[in-house]
Design a protein that fits this description.
By secondary structure, the protein is α/β, with parallel strands linked by helices. The chain has eight helices and eleven strands.
Length: 247
Amino acid sequence: MQFGLLGRKLSHSYSPQIHSFFGDYKYELFEKEPQELENFFKNKEFKGINVTIPYKKDVIKYCDELSDVAKQLGSVNTIVNKNGRLLGYNTDYFGFSYMIKKAEIEVENKKAIVLGSGGASVTCQAVLKNLGAKEVVVISRNGENNYNNLYKHFDAQIIVNSTPVGMYPNVNDSIIDLADFKNCEGVLDLIYNPNKTVLLKQAQSLGIKFSNGLSMLIAQAKQSVEKFFDKKIDDKIIKKAEKEFKL
């Protein structure tokens, strides 16, 4: 019975350490290039896996069944091998919801921008909309709303970074300047390594509520483990794990 994380570049991952907090099972890193996915899923040599950048959409075609949330989002980050049938879930939805709640950032009736348009972005958009955001705008490199016309959205109150900009080892990079966003009330950066990106350091210096992605990572891992072993785990364990893995 093997468990692990599937992605392309995983040297930055803390998932094995986090999963060791939830139980005594082997959790490995499966670094695969796109052309290796076919064989990986054909062999099905795993009991349960998490999926990260850049494969959250790509893995859908290998799943025999999707949960309602995964289907709605078109994004899968957890796959369970149940007697040869691959069941796809999205536990990032729960993770991001938990992250917002823990940061005590009020979303209802607020304008939010999500930086990035990948699988994680789709999840963030759905959660923000379901929490009653007045408007959710996706900022991407080549989309209608992009970094060249970002000035149109300087009135945003909530900012979410779903891109890898600022992630280790490129810790001096920042995707935007918060000084441009005079109405900003909350910044959520899905990156958890480093503990505080340049973006979050700026939020802190400006007195803006903020959170890194560690609480989301642990919360989604907790729900993934529930799927792996078909059991319920108390949410209180998330806070305990956060203290354990404070970076």
